[in-house]
Write a structure and sequence with these properties.
The complex is a heterodimer of chains A (353) and B (271). In chain A, a hairpin with a 2-residue loop joins strand 12 and strand 13. Chain A is 24% helix and 33% strand. Chain B is an all-alpha fold. The radius of gyration of chain B is 23 Å and the shape is globular. The chains are: A alpha+beta (353), B mainly alpha (271). At the A-B interface, strand 6 and helix 2 of A face helix 8 and helix 9 of B.
Chain lengths: 353, 271
């Protein structure tokens, strides 16, 4: 991971928890460092506390007593959002309906007392950057979803914030547009190089945009790491299953081999364990002739997806294994096959009870 | 039976009713207004005759003041009630909307109980300063009465509008550096604009035409509905009372129409 010497501030949150008035614990006390210029993604299912954490950083929520928020080492905990200099993009975009596109983008500058001409120049700069030329005088209700998203981003960036905070900015869009805008957003964030915190429940967004990903589960941080680390070395079963597809196998280990109904699968090392939990990604399983691999099973079904085909294989482990095979392999339900899995592709997870 | 003529047949009762009970009396009213000793100039008298003109101006000013004060009070209260949860909130809202059911006479009665000759305020001021404060029978008493029955109507509209406000808009404005006052000025009040116009117009029209309260209180208040009443029943001056009625109707109708067109365009702008 190489973080360029970016813009904006570095952020540290220290023992920040959040308990709501009705007693619900939205966030367990968490500590997190975000480097200057880094894009950090908070990822998790709804109700995992990711939005609460974002709102604490923004200054829209106060952390429970003892929690602190620091920007560049300065304690910002009791500074309200209007004086934190944060750019925020909301899921609903929250564009001002009584203002034109240009007035929306320039609002933060107007509040800061920037002169009209200077403001117009900065707005023009952002209009060009976010690719919305020609829409400056439109009303907000005349814009498409994708255009609104860009205006919201332009408005947040216009004030040259210390951090950019994005709360599920693509969720409101349809799938095709979401994919395109994700790429565009990624280029823009790289170009700006500003410290960014991005909240999403979509793992592919997290993978593409994040320098690092914080996976959250039920109000606490499950794992922090680069997309590769999170994907290949999940710390627990929740992370493994939340990110991508995963086969989770419970089986004993003898002399560095998983002992399975369909054969013995090497996992490297010499360790033995009475009850281990292992994760194998579907695309790391090679389909070969039966007997050409230590593990074998029977194909239950094959679904052709286009870029690959997804097979469900029984008999190899006590649960049905999902295998993503290349789309060129010819295989049918009922066929016996060998499953070739590299030892490094098997990840042992801590067992949970 | 062809479909079209069936639809027309269904409309027939409405047409008959409208003509018989609405259009005909209205037409007669307009004609009567011009049947006085001065003919059509009777209408001009509303504006030219000093007593009529003063009453007209009085009434419009009173209605305007009622509207403005109602909007201010109802907005502050409505915003607070919609945004905060506290014990007794439901009871408070129920009490605030209670006067909706009262006829004008009861409202007038309440004002007399409050600020009349035997009123609460009079008693209190008598004990404290040795002087009885009585204002129920003045235009100020009428103003209070109108406030009393305008606030419930407006507060309900404002609360509904506040509920529909996207709280994200305020948070977005704050994130851009807007102070609480700037948020109200630039985001909240513009978003509530259509609700202000709609409920304000109703409050204005109601205050222009309210009779019961005025009749209960008015010993020395000149407002249009009272003037019409005295011209009609006491002076049997049919032409003038008809002309005044038409004038009152036109003002109230014009304000409503203006509000409708204005709020129509702002509603469209607000998406």
């Amino acid at each position: 991971m190489s973080v360029p010497a970016g813009h904006g501030v570095s952020v540290r949150i220290e023992a920040c928890g959040k308990t709501f008035a009705d007693g619900t614990r939205a966030l367990e006390p968490a500590t997190l460092d975000i480097a200057r210029g880094e894009t950090l993604v908070l990822l998790g299912p709804s109700g995992c506390g990711k939005t609460t954490m974002l709102r604490i950083i923004a200054g829209l929520e106060l952390p429970d007593a003892g929690g602190r928020v620091l920007f560049d080492g300065n304690d910002m905990t009791s500074v309200p959002i209007e004086r934190r200099n944060v750019g925020m993009v909301f899921q609903s975009y929250a564009l001002f309906p009584n203002m034109s596109v240009a007035d929306n983008i320039g609002y933060g500058l107007k509040i800061r007392g920037m002169a009209r001409q200077e403001r117009a120049a900065r707005v023009a700069e952002l209009v060009a950057l976010t690719n919305i030329s020609g829409l400056e005088n439109r009303r907000v209700d005349q814009l498409s979803g994708g255009q609104r998203q860009r205006v919201a981003l332009a408005r947040a960036v216009a004030i040259r914030p210390g951090i950019l905070l994005l709360d599920e900015p693509l969720t409101a869009l349809d799938a095709a547009l979401r994919d395109r805008l994700r790429g565009e957003l990624n280029r823009l964030l790289r170009a700006l190089g500003i410290t960014t915190i991005y909240v999403t429940h979509d793992q592919s967004e997290a993978m593409e945009l994040g320098d690092r990903i914080v996976v959250m589960q039920r109000g606490s941080i499950a794992q922090i790491g680069t997309p590769r680390e999170i994907y290949f070395k999940p710390k627990n079963r929740f992370v493994a299953e939340f990110i991508g597809a995963a086969n989770i196998i419970e089986a004993p280990v003898e002399n560095g081999e998983l002992v399975l109904p369909g054969g013995r699968q090497p996992i490297g090392g010499e360790a033995s364990q009475a009850a281990a939990v292992a994760m194998i990604r579907p695309e790391t399983i090679g389909v070969v002739e039966e007997g050409a691999a230590p593990l074998s099973g029977t194909i239950d079904s094959v679904s052709f997806i286009g870029d690959r085909q997804r097979m469900l294989v029984s008999g190899a482990s006590d649960k049905v294994l999902t295998v993503d095979a290349p789309n060129t392999i010819k295989a049918q339900a009922g066929e016996r096959i060998g499953l070739l899995i590299a030892a490094e592709a098997v990840r042992l997870l801590p067992s949970e009870n | 039976m062809p479909h079209k003529s069936f639809v027309w047949l269904c409309l027939l009762p409405l047409v008959v009713l409208t003509v018989a009970f609405f259009l005909l009396p209205m037409a007669r009213l307009v004609v009567t207004g011009a049947e006085g000793p001065h003919g059509l100039a009777g209408y001009l008298a509303i504006l030219v005759e000093p007593r009529y003109r003063a009453t007209l101006i009085n009434t419009v000013l009173l209605a305007a003041a009622t509207t403005v004060v109602t909007l201010v009070v109802a907005t502050v209260a409505g915003m607070f009630l919609q945004r905060h949860r506290f014990p007794g909130r439901a009871v408070l809202i129920a009490m605030l909307t209670f006067p909706l059911a009262f006829p004008g006479v009861v409202v007038g009665f309440l004002i007399i109980l409050l600020a009349g000759r035997q009123g609460l305020i009079g008693d209190l001021s008598n004990r404290m300063f040795g002087e009885k404060l009585v204002f129920a029978y003045s235009i100020f008493g009428l103003f209070l009465g109108y406030l009393y029955f305008s606030i419930p109507r407006v507060i309900l509209t404002i609360m509904a509008a506040v509920q529909k406000l996207d709280i994200g808009l305020e948070e977005a404005a704050r994130s851009l550096g807007a102070s609480p006052w700037a948020v109200q000025r630039d985001v909240v009040l513009p978003a509530l604009g259509p609700a202000f116009v709609a409920s304000g117009a109703i409050a204005f029209a109601t205050a222009m035409g309210a009779f019961g309260t005025a009749f209960t209180l008015a010993t020395n208040i000149d407002v249009l509905p009272m003037l019409i009443y005295t011209e009609f029943t006491l002076a049997a001056n049919f032409a003038t009372s008809a002309a005044l009625s038409v004038g009152l109707g036109i003002i109230a109708w014009a304000i409503l129409a203006l509000a409708r067109s204005f709020s129509g365009s702002t509603v469209a702008a607000a998406g």
